[in-house]
Design goal:
The chain has 11 helices and 3 strands. By secondary structure, the protein is mainly alpha-helical. A 3-stranded mixed beta sheet has the order 2-1-3. A hairpin with a 5-residue loop joins strand 1 and strand 2 (about 165-170).
Length: about 210
């Protein structure tokens, strides 16, 4: 399966989930504390429906602070109903947007990780297809891309998945399900309890320090 096909399917799967959520679930904090589940859904739609001039203006008014601009732009989308957001994800399922300097693996990883940012606080299980999880793990560890993983988070650690053929690095071991590795690599401490190995304590310390 091509990466764009994985992305399109992930957007449709998420849209299907979103319209089933109750108002209480939508106002639950996601794994990103500043955002509710509803906000996180809006964040995933935002780059697909926001024009470049609007992005540049937000960056200008945020004095180059990408995180602040991102929050502002997401806030503009978050006022939409969850049905509108789900519809937007479906109608833009095949959108090939990717951040400058990154390939389609970046939006795929964004969808996988933020999808779990939504599901985990709600106690919803999701088995990520192996090919998608492996694609994102290799993206995260091969490039240590800005905005996803910092180089010092990976140094001296040997990551391996217990449910698919993925291994990266050397040093203290960090092993576990691919989903937990994805979340831990991108700084979600909630996934650390699902991992094992003598490198988990160091990884926990590094995540806490970011």
């Amino acid at each position: 399966m091509q990466v764009i096909d994985m992305i399109a399917d992930e957007r449709r799967v998420l849209a299907d989930l979103l319209i089933t959520l109750t108002p209480e679930q939508l106002t639950t904090h996601s794994l990103c504390d500043a955002w509710t589940v509803h906000d996180m859904a809006a964040h995933l739609l935002m780059p697909l429906v926001t024009g470049l001039p609007t992005v540049m203006l937000a960056m200008l008014t945020s004095k180059g602070n990408f995180d602040h601009a991102n929050r502002v732009l997401t806030g503009k989308i978050s006022v939409r109903s969850i049905k509108e957001i789900a519809k937007g994800l479906r109608s833009n399922a095949d959108n090939q947007f990717s951040p400058p300097g990154m390939g389609l693996e970046a939006p795929l990883t964004d969808l996988l990780v933020h999808g779990q940012d939504i599901r985990r606080p709600l106690g919803l299980q999701r088995e990520i297809p192996d090919e998608r999880a492996e694609t994102s793990l290799r993206f995260l560890t091969a490039k240590t891309p800005r905005g996803f993983v910092t180089k010092d988070r990976l140094a001296g650690l040997a990551f391996s998945a217990t449910d698919l053929p993925f291994a990266h690095g050397s040093g203290a071991a960090v092993t576990g399900p691919a989903e937990a590795l994805l979340l831990a690599l991108t700084g979600r401490p909630v996934a650390l309890d699902d991992l094992a190995g003598d490198g988990v304590a160091l990884l926990r310390e590094r995540i806490a320090g970011t």
